[in-house]
Amino acid sequence: MARITASVYTSHVPAIGAALDLGKTQEPYWQPVFAGYDFGKQWMKEQKPDVVFLVYNDHATAFSLDIIPTFAIGTAASFQPADEGWGPRPVPVVQGHPALASHIAQSVIQQDFDLTIVNRMDVDHGLTVPLSLMCGAQDPVQGAWPCPVIPFAVNVVQYPVPSGRRCFQLGQAIRRAIESFDEDLNVQIWGTGGMSHQLQGPRAGLINREFDNAFLDKLINDPEAAAAIPHIDYVRDAGSEGIELVMWLIARGAMSDVAGGPGARPPRVAHRFYHVPASNTAVGHLILENN
Predict the structure, then answer these.
(1) What is the value of pTM for the model shown?
(2) Domain ranges (residues) in the chain
(3) Which residues, 6+ apart, have CB-to-CB distance to 251 below 8 Å?
(4) If you count Cβ atoms within 10 Å of the first and of the last residue's Cβ in the chain, which end, N or C, has fewer?
């Protein structure tokens, strides 16, 4: 059967993508950010998955304010990089995994989670920046990402947004779905977005190191407590865009220790990184491996 071997967590700051695309990664401002992903890139080569299930949020690219799905799964064979107003990023087309994606949709909907099934969708920086950080620069024409990717978009842009607990429970349903897929696949699940940041209003530029690191501690050691954080705490302590962190709870909910049972053990922390700032955002990165 398919299995989830690890979860990856990372910010998806659009300015990081611009720094990559414009060759600025070694500039003094950006070098510490990208150095924090050197481990992840090598780890990705050594632990190359068959499929990545990538949780991110669309930034009014595939979905406008006319239609706002709470959870949307991409079931297409491929996904084009989106034009976000200044042209698409110079990265390869994302190859999907329609068979596994359709199976997950079937299973998760039967577990009483309502998903929007998307057979055609462009993917923006929320998905392509994490791929670039973990996989390195790729030629947009001749290159390819190292494995198929299943995009899973979560609405954290327009309220009402899903609760942390709902996202955590959804991660558990996704794990059950993947484990019921009758093919030997090594699957990684990635949660992206955050950490603390606010893009507008009197608190624009807000970053809260204490909240961010406490969240990472909870995510590793007490994910139930992380899942119980109410929306108002994200907004108050992590800024209006800090709510993106609920997407990390989907990935954490899919880890085997959450399921409990005989032999359940906490995941191994392969890598942890935190940096302030990248543009006006705190950057967090974590890799957890199932024991």
Answers:
(1) 0.97
(2) 3-289
(3) 7, 8, 9, 55, 171, 189, 190, 191
(4) N
pLDDT of 142 reads: 87
pLDDT per residue as tens digits for the range 253-277: 999 999 887 778 899 999 999 999 9
269 within 8 A of 185, measured Cβ to Cβ: no
Task: Judge whether 231 counts as a catalytic residue.
Answer: no
Q: Are 164 and 92 in contact (CB under 8 A)?
A: no
Q: What is the mean pLDDT of residues 139-165?
A: 95
Q: Give the mean model confidence (pLDDT) for residues 135-145.
A: 91
**Rounded-to-integer distance, Cα 149 and Cα 114, Å:** 21
Catalytic residue (choose from 125, 271, 275, 285)? 125
Average pLDDT over all residues of the chain: 96
285 among known catalytic residues: no
Identify the H or E element spanning 196.
none
Domain 3-289, second-level architecture? 3-Layer(aba) Sandwich (3.40)
Place of tokens 């309220």: 159
Which parts of 217-289 are beta strand (E)? 268-278, 281-289
